[in-house]
Amino acid sequence: MITPLKQPIVFELEGFHVPPGYSSFLFFLALLNYMLTLLGNGVVACIIVIDKNLHRPMFVLICHLVACDLIGATAVLPRLMVHFLTGQKKIAYLTAIAQGFCVHMYGVAVQTILGAMAYDRILHASVKQGRGDSVIRSKAFQTCASHLVVYVLYEIAAMIIIVTFRFPSVSQNIKKFSSILFIIIPPAINPYYLRTGQ
Question: Which among 51, 61, 80, 182 could bridge 157 via Cys, Cβ 3.0 to 4.6 Å?
Fold first, then answer.
């Protein structure tokens, strides 16, 4: 017989080991990162929505990437800020499920969107390439290069996660930070790499 779970279920998170006196500084860094993410991605989304010339497939994909970045950052950074500021390491069951769902969907969606963006640019370049214009090819390469940089950032973050967990001598704080690196850094810098060359 299965016993039902008793509510409320609360998980105790390991969290970061924050040396005394550094919690305010780390909170400020996380807040700055979150504000940069909200501002940069919000500006990109507003420009695409307002400018009718940008209502094309590539910019729709960029809007999806912006929304994805906002969801991913919002799933992790506010909780991280609470941890740094108050030292609270408990999370409710439903909150943990929602956070896990958002983080995993973020990872899948970002990879899918970046792949679709690269495919769109390749198709666009191959259609234009029929004319043999080297300027068009150069512009297409610049566009693909910026998307490639964002993709490589995600892959580097994933590689750091794998490498740090292979070495037991690496500090726990570094392992924990590397495991959320892919959701902290790229959403904050995506708006600055998403040049389309158009």
Answer: 182
**Tens-digit pLDDT string for the chain (198 aa):** 677 767 778 888 787 888 888 899 999 999 999 999 999 999 999 999 999 998 988 888 889 989 999 999 999 999 999 988 988 888 888 889 999 999 999 989 988 888 888 777 777 777 766 666 666 666 666 666 766 777 777 788 778 888 887 888 888 888 888 778 778 877 887 766 555 444
The answer to whether the beta carbons of residues 26 and 83 sit under 8 Å apart is no
Residue type, 71: I
Pairing mode of beta strands 90-92, 10-12:
antiparallel
Closest CA to 107 of 146, 147, 155: 155
